[in-house]
Amino acid sequence: MRLRVVLEPSDEGGYTVYVPSLPGCISEGDSREAALANIREAIELYLEPSELQPVGDQSLVEELVV
User: Fold this and answer.
1) DSSP β-bridge partners for residue 28
2) What is the full per-residue pLDDT of the chain (66 aa) written as tens digits?
């Protein structure tokens, strides 16, 4: 899967990074490399299915590899 991320210099130093196609998926790091490593982890967590998410009686749950 390929996603575009936006790195913005932070006023406190380092970078803030977010994924425009994943609302609310945001992270930061002291360096560009750290910010990119942190956003990779944030993306994985964002896309991880939640076991706590309620599913209706008629619903089916399938797992896809992207």
Assistant:
1) 16
2) 899 999 999 999 999 999 999 999 999 999 999 999 999 999 999 998 766 566 667 777 677 787
Could you write out the DSSP letters of every residue in 7-46?
EEE-TTSSEEEE-TTSTT-EEEESSHHHHHHHHHHHHHHH
End-to-end CA distance of the chain: 6
pTM score: 0.73
Long-range contacts of 38-46, Cβ-Cβ distance < 8 Å, separation of 24 or more: 39/5, 43/3, 43/19, 46/19, 46/22
What whole-number distance in Å separates Cα of residue 48 and Cα of residue 37?
17
- Cα separation, 34 vs 54, in Å, equals 34
